[in-house]
Write a sequence for this structure.
């Protein structure tokens, strides 16, 4: 039952990422002013060709609406949260005296040499909390003036790569943690 609770959200995340992909992977071609006039009426033809060549969606002039970027960041945070729940449960199950899970490896303890700390589980919790705190910054980046905001875009691109990296590290750590489970059960 517990393992199912860890796995069930993953399929929803995969489906949501598939839905988000064409919304996030968009061509932006609008010219210097942002209205496509620089292409002398050929903007749509050029954009269609470019989008097909680059395997992108031509969503028109989307660069003033950063909602899909925030949705993407939110989905990454939700993935991290799911992994954090897994990590939290493993950390609790591995506590001395509870011993519902036995892990190979782990971190040592200076106070109790026989103890193995669930460092990967703790890392998943940390990454989930980190990404959750970054989402407010992505929402701040939604607010920008008129057609261009160097400040909002700079904020967005300061935060999003870190959310992406934290999520990737969480996926890697969760995979590694799964391989370190030697025994899992209930007493």
């Amino acid at each position: 039952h517990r393992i199912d609770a860890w796995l069930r959200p993953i399929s929803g995340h995969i489906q949501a990422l598939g839905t988000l992909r064409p919304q996030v992977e968009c061509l932006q071609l609008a010219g210097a002013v942002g209205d496509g006039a620089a292409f002398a009426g050929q903007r749509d033809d050029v954009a269609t060709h470019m989008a097909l060549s680059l395997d992108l969606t031509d969503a028109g002039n989307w660069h003033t609406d950063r909602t899909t970027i925030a949705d993407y960041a939110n989905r990454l945070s939700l993935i991290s949260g799911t992994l954090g729940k897994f990590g939290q449960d493993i950390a609790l199950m591995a506590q001395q005296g509870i011993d519902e899970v036995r892990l190979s490896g782990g971190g040592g303890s200076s106070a109790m040499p026989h103890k193995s700390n669930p460092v990967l589980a703790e890392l998943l919790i940390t990454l989930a909390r980190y990404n959750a705190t970054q989402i407010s910054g992505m929402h701040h980046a939604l607010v920008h003036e008129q057609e261009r905001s160097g400040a909002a875009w700079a904020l967005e691109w300061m935060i999003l790569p870190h959310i992406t990296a934290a999520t990737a590290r969480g996926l890697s750590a969760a995979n590694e943690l799964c391989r370190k489970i030697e025994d899992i059960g209930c007493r």
Observations:
- The chain has a mean pLDDT of 88.
- DSSP finds five helices and six strands in the chain.
- Residues 150-180 form the longest helix (31 residues).
- The domain at 2-23+64-184 is CATH 1.20.200.10 (Fumarase C; Chain A, domain 2).
